[in-house]
Amino acid sequence: MTASPKLLEPIKLGDLQLNNRVVHAPMTRTKAEADFTPTDLMGEYYAQRSGAGLLIAEATAVSPDAIAWMHQPGAFKPKHVEGWKKVTDAVHAKGSKIFLQIWHPGRATHTALNNGTLAVAPSAIRLENDQIHTPEGKKDYETPRALETEEIPGIVAQFKQAAIYAQEANFDGVEIHGANGYLIDQFLQSKTNHRADGYGGSIENRYRFLDEVVQAVLDVFPANRVGVRLAPNGVFNDMGSNDYQEQFLYVASRLNEYSLAYLHMMDGLAFGFHERGEPLTLAQFREVYHGTLIGNCGYTQETAEQRISSGEADMIAFGRPFISTPDLVERFQHGWALNEELDPAKWYLPVTSEGYTDLPTAQEAELA
Ligand SMILES: Cc1cc2nc3c(=O)[nH]c(=O)nc-3n(C[C@H](O)[C@H](O)[C@H](O)COP(=O)(O)O)c2cc1C
To answer: What is the number of other CB atoms lying within 10 angstroms of the CB of residue 136?
Structure first.
């Protein structure tokens, strides 16, 4: 008898039958080719973690100007589709499901990564208190260029094209990355959006860009194959706005319009908290959002089970535990100890199996 019957219970996500409620959180690991084509190694990584009911593959650039990491993957040219097909085939062969996280970093990039193209953002406000890895070493962020109103449909179209490529690559769905201070989050938050046009100035207007991206992606995938990720409490990438409560509860209530596959909330504080007030909780989102809710950040087997049993969440995503422990779900099933957390210095090693696909299963660690 498992200690987490709810977490390990199958669930229906739209028309998809998932084996359990454990989600592999999207995690950038910089294991793609230099031209952003996913590698066989990535297929091996995701296949190893296919015990998860749902895997969400890492942040994937929607355009050649949306590069924030060397060796990150892309979904902006046909060659990328060929690479991703190997990943989806590997996961499907193991009986699991996989969504692709489609992403534009907005201001969180650098000319040194984008062939000299300056980052774009809702407003010309620089990301402070952090640096970015470039081919020329770590650098301060640059002040981005504010997007012209007429340019915005072009960026929305990039998300749509990425969704088309994701579909061609046989992903079961896509997750729109609205979290962690990237372009969509930059539009949502008053800290980074000082626009005077229809995309800024009010909570409703700041939501407009995400709304347009969702509608564009819904031209490609049915609503029950599209998720949205938000980080209302996060400080990562220099985020946190005084009106975060009103903004994010509004966004969640508006997203009800679409009957999406899920809303993925980074509710926990384990990835950094902006301390602008009390953190928003899953219970608060449950009140305003009527679909499937995924929680994330700092969860353990025990706290995940509690959240699902109490009805606050339907599924829980695990990030760092999945990096170090490929057979996380099997360990939960049997009550086996997890591997030690991987040293963060090994998170972004370019294209190597070290700290990526070489972490032992319970059998290999002789725990089983
Ligand atoms: C190495 C690393 C890479 C990450 N990359 C992404 C990403 O590409 N997209 C995203 O939405 N979150 C990303 N995150 C955040 C994770 O999805 C997750 O929210 C975070 O690790 C907190 O969950 P945990 O406490 O279970 O690790 C990343 C986290 C880590 C540690």
So the answer is: 9
Whether 320 is in the pocket of ligand 1, judged by its Cβ within 6 Å, is yes
Task: Examine the pLDDT at 368 and tell me if it is beyond 80.
Answer: no
Q: Decide the pairing of beta strands 145-146 and 173-178.
A: unpaired
DSSP 24: E
Q: What is the pLDDT of residue 216?
A: 99
Residue 198: domain span: 11-346
CATH number for position 113: 3.20.20.70
Cβ distance 113 to 68 under 8 Å?
Answer: yes
Catalytic residue among 46, 141, 182, 244: 182
Query: What is the average pLDDT across 29-53?
Result: 98
**Domain assignment present for 364:** no
pLDDT level of residue 158 (50, 70, 90 thresholds): very high
Tokens of 53: 């009911």
Question: To the nearest 10°, the Cα dihedral for 302, 303, 305, 311?
Answer: 160
> What is the number of structural domains in the chain?
1
Mean pLDDT over residues 298-317, rounded? 98
| E-assigned strand segments in 236-302 | 262-265, 293-296
45 in catalytic set:
no
